[in-house]
């Protein structure tokens, strides 16, 4: 229901140097002063982080750990039914804690020996080119806050559950993590904003909201589906289309609702051959041709 590079609550630095996360009035935590203070403090950790140093520790409350434990437990049940075998194997390989929120530094230390990926803390909006570009170096920008406790199975924005349960499990796979790196290389290679948007849309319809034929049925590998308690139950009923780079790169989507158009890979090999090859070789000219063909 969101894209990391676009759908964060704005973060502002006040005249006195304090950090404030500007939540919308519709946000579940808008009227909760304790939650808002927690969001501000956690955002300040990311703002103050110096690249190359350990990620600051977020001191989560018992209530926040309970939200993680509940969602982690419920999603694990659904993953056995709806997630691809590659994702399930990678999740077992990574071994995230089930009863508490892991620190991003901890996630990095689990991931790095497996696929070389590490996390970077994000206070809020990360520019599109920066968000995708660092994937080429094995870095992933991530929030540290968790959704409001009143709606543990819903969040209007990407939180640590999405960033870690959705993405870190995929990043523990050698094959999925290679695709993340190729997407980052493509984002760095292209020059125009239009080409970058095309690359990001292909990412959206694959590593965020991708589905594939797996174990004799349609299963999900996209982090947006696999971290959404509601959407994971609905994706098989959406408009499922064949994997098509030109269509993925030019199809409009609404980040505020369940994705009603999804693109199906016939296997992980098919995904690697089509999407991996695109990201590995694309440039502004080839993308312009693909976009023209889709008109």
Automatic annotation (TrEMBL):
GO biological process, one term: aromatic amino acid metabolic process
Cofactor(s), by name: Fe(2+)
Annotated Fe cation binding sites: 162, 167, 208
PROSITE patterns in the cross-refs: BH4_AAA_HYDROXYL_2 (PS51410)
Molecular-function annotations in GO: iron ion binding; oxidoreductase activity, acting on paired donors, with incorporation or reduction of molecular oxygen, reduced pteridine as one donor, and incorporation of one atom of oxygen
Matches recorded under CDD domains: arom_aa_hydroxylase
Alphabetical UniProt keywords: Iron, Metal-binding, Monooxygenase, Oxidoreductase
InterPro entries: ArAA_hydroxylase (IPR001273), ArAA_hydroxylase_sf (IPR036951), Aro-AA_hydroxylase_C_sf (IPR036329), Aromatic-AA_hydroxylase_C (IPR019774)
Residue stretches making up the Biopterin-dependent aromatic amino acid hydroxylase family profile domain: 1-295
UniProt KW Phosphoprotein keyword: no
PANTHER family named in the record: AROMATIC AMINO ACID HYDROXYLASE, PHENYLALANINE-4-HYDROXYLASE
Family recorded in the similarity comment: Belongs to the biopterin-dependent aromatic amino acid hydroxylase family.
Protein's UniProt name: Phenylalanine 4-monooxygenase
Taxonomic source organism: Streptosporangium carneum
């Amino acid at each position: 229901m969101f894209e990391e590079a676009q759908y964060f609550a704005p973060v502002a630095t006040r005249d006195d140097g304090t950090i404030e996360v500007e939540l919308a009035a519709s946000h579940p935590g808008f009227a909760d002063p304790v939650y808002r203070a927690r969001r501000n403090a956690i955002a300040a950790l990311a703002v103050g982080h110096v690249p190359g140093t350990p990620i600051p520790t977020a001191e989560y409350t018992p209530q926040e750990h309970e939200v993680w434990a509940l969602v982690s437990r419920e999603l694990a049940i659904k993953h056995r039914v709806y997630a691809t075998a590659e994702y399930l194997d990678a999740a077992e390989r990574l071994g995230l804690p089930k009863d508490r929120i892991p620190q991003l530094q901890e996630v990095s230390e689990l991931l790095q020996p497996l696929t070389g990926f590490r996390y970077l803390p994000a206070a809020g909006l990360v520019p599109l080119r920066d968000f995708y570009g660092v994937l080429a170096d094995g870095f992933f920008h991530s929030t540290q806050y968790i959704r409001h406790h009143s709606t543990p199975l819903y969040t209007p924005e990407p939180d640590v559950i999405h960033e870690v349960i959705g993405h870190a499990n995929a990043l523990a796979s050698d094959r999925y993590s290679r695709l993340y790196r190729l997407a980052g290389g493509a984002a760095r290679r292209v020059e125009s904003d239009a080409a970058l948007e095309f690359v990001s849309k292909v990412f959206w319809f694959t590593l965020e909201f991708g589905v594939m034929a797996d174990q004799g049925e349609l299963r999900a590998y996209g982090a947006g589906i696999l971290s959404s308690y509601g959407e994971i139950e609905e994706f098989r009923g959406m408009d499922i289309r064949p994997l098509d780079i030109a269509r993925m790169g030019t199809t409009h989507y609404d980040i505020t609702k369940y994705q009603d158009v999804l693109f199906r890979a016939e296997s992980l090999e098919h995904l690697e051959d089509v999407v991996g090859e695109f990201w590995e070789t694309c440039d502004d000219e080839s993308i312009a041709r693909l976009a023209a063909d889709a008109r």
